[in-house]
């Protein structure tokens, strides 16, 4: 079975549920496996490399076995479980709501906006102005489009394609691909800081994994903002962004909205423009939402096309 149904299931759950509470979220459970690595080691790079290889692979294998086991019980259970895995591997609606709340509160209740930013970005918000808070909200929404949605979704589609063309069962392989990418991203988010040598392998692996999703997210966001030229403008600012990937969706947001997005002391995107006002910031968050819906639609169409192609062989 070509896994179009799981994409529909994941998209429906994202729309209706948003995200389960943290205590019941498998990604939080995975984080508990990662947490013991976060300490001083005699050989941090070796330990980090082993963790970066083993933990996401463990998650992928567990997910694949769960989908296979579900399929042995019922033909309908396998796509349902695969869809649930894809849903749990993605994150968009809750973060979009948090970003919109920060953008809305920045001008009227700056303390609430600063508190709300804690759910979005790991930066000190105590001295940020209203414009800088809105900037952080737009940056976080745009970056999350890449790592929270496009990364697991594109991994699901690519893994399904490889499995189908190789004659392997696409459902467990596709679900495993999404889980593996989510595991890599979770490792990076917990350990991938300059002062944590144990997290360096995870950070480098995440950079490689995110290369394609970051650029796909920039493309789909440019479509959502109806500004294809924003892709070309983004190239002007990428050298100033430490990450090799996050500058793409954030830069497209800055260009498409014609605003300055900045992380004080780190980078500035579109430096000649003004910081976003409430209207621009909330438009940016809505555009990320549109890009997310578009991504689900494109993924579904790609899997339908895959089904047609695989039927020829």
UniProtKB/TrEMBL annotation:
A Pfam family reported for this protein in Swiss-Prot or TrEMBL: CobD_Cbib
Keyword field: Cell membrane, Cobalamin biosynthesis, Membrane, Transmembrane, Transmembrane helix
InterPro entries named in the record: Cobalamin_biosynth_CobD/CbiB
Superkingdom assignment: Archaea
Pathway the protein acts in: Cofactor biosynthesis; adenosylcobalamin biosynthesis
Primary location: membrane
Keyword Transmembrane helix (UniProt): yes
Record-annotated membrane-spanning stretches: 45-70, 76-96, 287-307
Coiled-coil residue windows: none
Ribosomal protein in keyword set: no
Membrane topology of this protein: Multi-pass membrane protein
Localization of this protein: Cell membrane
Family label: Belongs to the CobD/CbiB family.
Function of the molecule: Converts cobyric acid to cobinamide by the addition of aminopropanol on the F carboxylic group.
Protein name: Probable cobalamin biosynthesis protein CobD
Species the sequence originates in: Haloarcula onubensis
């Amino acid at each position: 079975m070509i896994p179009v149904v799981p994409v529909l299931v994941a998209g429906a759950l994202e729309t209706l549920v948003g995200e389960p509470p943290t205590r019941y979220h498998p990604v939080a459970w995975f984080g508990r496996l990662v947490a013991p690595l976060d300490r001083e080691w005699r050989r941090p790079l070796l330990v980090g490399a082993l963790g970066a290889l083993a933990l996401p692979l463990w998650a992928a294998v567990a997910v694949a076995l769960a989908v296979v086991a579900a399929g042995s019980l019922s033909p309908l259970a396998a796509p349902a479980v695969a869809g649930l895995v894809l849903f749990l591997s993605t994150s968009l609606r809750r973060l979009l709501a948090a970003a919109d709340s920060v953008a809305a509160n920045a001008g009227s209740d700056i303390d609430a906006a600063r508190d709300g930013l804690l759910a979005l970005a790991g930066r000190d918000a105590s001295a940020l102005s209203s414009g800088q808070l809105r900037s952080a909200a737009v940056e976080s929404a745009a970056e999350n489009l890449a790592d929270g949605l496009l990364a697991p979704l594109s991994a699901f589609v690519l893994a399904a394609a490889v499995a189908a063309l190789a004659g392997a069962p696409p459902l467990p392989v596709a679900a495993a691909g999404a889980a593996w990418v989510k595991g890599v991203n979770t490792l990076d988010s917990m350990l991938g800081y300059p002062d944590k040598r144990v997290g360096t392998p995870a950070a480098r692996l995440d950079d490689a994994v995110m290369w394609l999703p970051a650029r796909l997210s920039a493309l789909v966001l440019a479509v959502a903002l109806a500004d294809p030229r924003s892709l070309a403008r983004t190239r002007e600012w990428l050298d100033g962004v430490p990450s090799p990937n996050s500058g793409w969706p954030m830069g497209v947001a800055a260009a498409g909205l014609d605003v300055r997005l900045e992380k004080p002391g780190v980078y500035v995107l579109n430096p000649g423009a003004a910081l976003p006002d409430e209207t621009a910031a909330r438009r940016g968050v809505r555009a990320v939402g549109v890009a997310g819906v578009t991504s689900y639609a494109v993924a579904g169409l790609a899997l339908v096309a895959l089904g047609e192609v695989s039927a020829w062989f």
